[in-house]
């Protein structure tokens, strides 16, 4: 059987639920990796990407707290790279441990990934990507008065969060090296947090202040490495229409045309389920013989036994 190349995009709950301490995140990452190793045991090639919303926001707050001449705050692009480092480190370490427990001799590597964006992307004028912790409205207003440049919005009924620009990915600078590692059977962790956003300036890449949506970056990664499947793991087993309403309906097998109708009908929340749906549509449009799956980490075992979750095909 030929090895399937699978891009697995990990959502927030795969790394952080409520406790943002290093020990709690390390524990969550280990549980996640235990589930992911099932793909490896089945003979699949894993190309992992992950979010960084909570982590990048928390790091930014830590930067601001120690901003002095001796310990200056780092800008958002650099903080994005820091978040790739911390999560990649936790994940590599967990893979080393779990692979050894399973008696599997495989290498794993994190690639600090730069994602190319258009410096003129309209997203820079309209911050939409929620990062960091949730606040009450009063706390958010207080934060805003301390840092007038920061924008806060109410995030899907869950509280107030800082939002930053989130331009669409155009390319992934490190795609060729990621491809080489994939061909060499290395488990890769790349495009973390959507990748560090960089804009082209002649021959140079310049970091820009933004956080890219990891679902869009994962789609771009899947396209560039020629992945056979894109799996987006989040907190729900399936995508629903009329989500959270008494008449909600689970989507199991769904086509691009059906999803486009549901989008017109505003069925998917912006900033949460909508980018996953858009990324899945883009992926299957680019690779019409492939499929994208949106499901939960807990559903991976069912997904491996037989297709499970919401399966999107052209
Ligand atoms: N139509 C829908 N079907 C299923 N979940 C939805 C829908 N609309 C919004 N959601 C919410 O979107 C969440 C996934 O988005 P989010 O939490 O931002 O993702 P991530 O796992 O990448 O951090 C789900 O857990 C669910 O609460
Ligand atoms: N960068 C990004 O999309 O992060 P989250 O998935 O954590 O929001």
UniProtKB/TrEMBL annotation:
It catalyses: hydrogencarbonate + NH4(+) + ATP = carbamoyl phosphate + ADP + H2O + H(+). One of its GO terms (biological process) is L-arginine deiminase pathway. Keywords: Arginine metabolism, Kinase, Transferase. PANTHER family: CARBAMATE KINASE (PTHR30409), CARBAMATE KINASE-RELATED (PTHR30409:SF1). Residues 5-287 form the Aspartate/glutamate/uridylate kinase domain. This is Carbamate kinase. Belongs to the carbamate kinase family. Pathway: Metabolic intermediate metabolism; carbamoyl phosphate degradation; CO(2) and NH(3) from carbamoyl phosphate: step 1/1. SUPFAM superfamilies: Carbamate kinase-like. GO terms for cellular component: cytosol. Pfam families: AA_kinase. InterPro entries: AceGlu_kinase-like_sf (IPR036393), Asp/Glu/Uridylate_kinase (IPR001048), Carb_kinase (IPR003964). GO terms for molecular function: carbamate kinase activity.
